[in-house]
Amino acid sequence: MKYYSLLFILFTLTLTSCIKDEPLNSECDILSVWIEGDQYKDCFYQPETDMRINEVLYSTNTITFTVKSMLSLPKIPLHFTITPGATIEPANGSEQDFSKGSVTYTVTSEDGSWKRQYNIIFREPELPTKYDFENYELLKSNLASYSYYSWYEYDSKGNKVNLWATGNQGFGLGNSMFAPEAYPTVPVDEGYDGKCVKMQTLDAGPLAAFIKKYIAAGNLYIGDFDLNMTMTNSLASTKMGKSYTFIEKPVKVTGYYKYQPGPEYRDENNKIIANKTDEADAYAVLYRNKDENGKPVILDGSNILTSNYIVSKARVASLPPTNEWKPFEMVFEDITPIDNGILNERGYNLALVFSSSKEGAKFCGAIGSTLYIDKVAISLEKE
Q: What is the DSSP annotation of 297-351?
């Protein structure tokens, strides 16, 4: 009996020791954020979706809520899910005044060694319609020690709008030693007017080749990039589209481009396909952002051109090779009637996509294919 009692005591001490020795969590992320209370519903166009962000992308440090009017915005308490053991300041559920600008929240890890800051913004919806690509910045990855270029816009009130995304973050995972200028999508000076965006199809590197993703097409699109999905479901990592904020229908997209295809077209198995030439691509999609049950819809690289939620689409017939700046135009064609009531309630998302390889989403294309884009504009029905 004493023998078994001794074993039990030793087991208990060992278990206690294991629990004490378990390291504290070093993560410090906001996972989701939402607003509670019926009294706040009138502030939003679509309360069921606009008052809650169920998944905060790991790659972002800015969280934006869209409201009808900033003038009548009351103090609002935000509620958060954060990584286990972490703390957040200002306090979870405390009222804050967002009418005067962004509020910075700081998340501190359980072990106290790491901090991460998030800027949370409330703003009225406004999607810019003209893009000169003069505004960009270098961002540091939250996952590894590399930096990449990202583009943004300003609305008519001077507010910064994080509109654009690229695959640069995914490329950096396996090529973190590369300079930002060696990534697939970069800014350059020789634009049609000022600066422009250069997209180039590159060798994706040994890490990507290990999972049989051999090329990385340069791309730029309206939407977000989910870094967590890169290795498991690369197409799902491209969250395409932002809220369409106009009561007028989109008519066409215009802009200027230069393009040269790379010398050797490669298929998804990295095999050279003789007599096949790479092509660039540009298209725009307007789609419903809620399903039949009112749940949010966000299209990605797997369904952006095929989803049943698409109501209108525009795509260039071709972008012929040229070393000189040439204009392009793509006209929207309605697939189903656009509902004015849904327009008024911000029930559509707009995606605008450019790529240096038309089949880049399938990891097919020619290394060296290079697309330049500048002076892009969306024309609305009233214009």
A: --EETTTTTT-TTEEEEEE-S----EEEEEEEEEE-EESSPPPHHHHHTT-EEEE
200-225: b (≥16 Cβ within 10 Å) or e: bbbebbeebeeeebbbbbbbbbbbbb
> Three-state SS for 19?
helix
Mean pLDDT of 75-80: 96
Q: Which token pair is 378?
A: 């969306």
- Helix, strand, coil in percent for the chain, rounding step 5: 15, 40, 45
Give residue for tokens 């906001």: 30
The mean per-residue pLDDT over the stretch 364-379 comes to: 98
Q: Which residues contact 316 (CB under 8 A, 6 or more apart)?
A: 281, 282, 283, 328, 329, 330
Tokens 């000169």, residue?
132
**Which tokens in the block code for residue 60?**
């972002």
Which of the residue ranges 184-188, 329-333, 337-341 would you say has the lowest mean pLDDT?
Answer: 337-341
The answer on pLDDT for 13 being more than 50 is no
Please tell me the distance from the alpha carbon of residue 38 to that of residue 96, in angstroms, as a whole number.
17
Q: Which of 150, 160, 165 is nearest to 128 (CA)?
A: 160
Q: Which of 336, 315, 165, 145 is nearest to 241 (CA)?
A: 165
- Return the closest-CA partner of residue 218 out of 189, 242, 187, 183: 183
Label residues 67-94 b or e (16+ Cβ within 10 Å = b).
beebeebeebebebebbeebebeeeeee
Which uninterrupted H or E stretch holds 52? Answer: strand 52-53
- Quick check: 20 pLDDT over 60? no
Q: Which helix (H) or strand (E) holds 208?
A: helix 206-210
DSSP bridge pairs for 81: 32
